Amino acid sequence: MPATGQIKGLRSQSTKISSVPLLISHQGYIVDSTGTGITGTLPITFNFWDDSIAGTNPLSLSFPGIILTKGVFSVNLDITSLDLTKQYWLETVVNGQILAPRMRLTSAPYSLAPWETNGTSIYYDGGNVGIGTNNPSASLEVIGHTFSKAPLAVYDSASGSGTGNFTISWLKDVRVDTVLVEKQINNQDFRLKKNGWYRISSQIWFSNLINGAYTMDININNIPYKSVALFVPGTTEAVLSCNIFIKSDGNTLATLRAYSWVGYTFNVDMGINFSQLSIEYVGSE
Prior knowledge:
mainly beta; Immunoglobulin-like; Jelly Rolls; seven-stranded antiparallel sheet; six-stranded antiparallel sheet; 59% strand
């Protein structure tokens, strides 16, 4: 029986962005001249046009035998070759009969564009990306608030004492991110697990100080890297703080040590809650 010039209950749905090729799942309902849904097999062609009435036809997909059950059919349309930055209308031709009007493609198929896939990743290299703005001035410009997990690990409850020098231990995990930082079992060494730049910030309250010079060193792979100096003029307690950038190869070990230049005995004051260490991943470049 011939199909009528209409498709009822038509809908389209895009697949996941990672699919290759890019497909839309297209469903429709075709009835005969009496209004009864057709059951059987019919040849159907799907034409994509860039205009609702005239225009050009950049893509045509023909199926020699689509199964219909009580008028309902379902088919996957490969739209990989379409430039999805443009607007299209879908024309359906059933057994040589053009059904009108053309259906305008809406948001679902366009969710595939203009992103491209690389394995399980997606990317866009055609210009700037804006969120909350249609005129982005940078690679990514966001107007409004964003919420994300900060790439940050935080520790406190520092301890340590010695004559001349000692390694500082961090006994309490305040915020853990094991993807970025792995605190070793000795509570002293921290493995920086990603390639790129880290910022290590700390402040420590020392006591039993004597007139002289003290330093807090950050060691990288057991080698002194940077030092922060403190000169103590007639006080027995003081805070020493640092803010240092380090580049990790993905397996770098960072450790904090305290030194007295003249070999005095001193310690971290555990009775004062003023010691904290934060390790932040700031990026690969």
